[in-house]
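Re: the 294-residue chain
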Amino acid sequence: MIECKQFETFSFKTPAFGGNEPNRLCWYFNARCRAKEWMELRVVGCHGGETPKHRTSAFVVDERLAIDAGSLTSGLDLRAQYRLQAAIISHAHLDHVRDLATIADNRCQVDCEPLIVAATKDTIQVLKKHFFNGKLWPDFSVIATKARRPTIRFQELKPEQPVELAGYQVRAVSVSHTIDASGFIVRGADAAIAYSGDTGPTDRLWELLNAEPDLKALLVEVSFPDREQKLATVSGHHTPRTLLKDLKKLRRPKDLPTLLYHIKPAFQREVEQECARLKGVNLAVTAIGDQYVL
C-alpha cells in the first residue's frame, strides 16, 4: 500500500496556461491507492500541427496502450516502442496515424508480439486501402517479425461495445468530425480516462461520460481561436467557445480534470489565453513530455 494525498481540486506544479516547462503533475482521488491501480498517462504529442517544437497527437497509458499514433516514433525511443501492446486509433487522418508506419517498421526487425491496431471498421478500411497497401507503405499485417508473427494485427472496435486491449477495457464512442471518428473511454482496475478524438460539438460522448464512474480525466481537443469559428466548423474542430458549451453538458464540469490538446501551432498563445478565461471548468493545456498519474 502507498499513502497518497487526496486533492479535492486539480492542482498544478506549473501554470495551467502559458507555461514553457512540461507539467509533471499527479492527482489522486482516493486517500489510499495501490501502485497497480494507478494509470499513468504520458503525452508524446499533443498539437494540431507539427514544427520542431510541436508534435501531432499521441498519448501512452502505462507504457503499453497508445492512444493515436501521430508521433509515436518521433517521440518514443525504441524500447518504449517495443513495449507497446496496442494502439487505439480515433480516425484515419494522417496526423493521428502517421507513425503507425514507422513503428511497424521498427518492430518488424525484432522479436515483438504483434501490435494490435484497434479502430472502427471504417478507419481500418482506410488504413488497409490507403496506408498499409503495399504502395504507400508495406502491409505489415502480412509481414512477420523475426519471431514469425505478424508485425501488426487489426482489431475492429464497434461503437460503445467494450473490448479488452492491453489490460484495459476500451469503448469507442462516435464523435462529430469530417470523416468517421471516435473518442474513447479507457478503463483500468479502478479508474477511467476519456479521449475526445478530433471533434466539434457532439452529444453522445457527454451522455456516456455522465454515466461513467471513477472518471479521472478527460483529454479533449480544441484547435482554433474563437475568431476562426468558420474554419473550425468546416473542419470539424472546437474553438474555446464551442468547447465550453460542450463541457457544460457534463453534470459537474468543474470537478473533472480536463486536458486540452490539438491546438494549432499558429494559434497556440491565442487559444490558451481564450481557454484561460473560461469559467466553471477545470482546464490545463498539455505539453510534450507531460506525465499524469491517475
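The radius of gyration is 18 Å.
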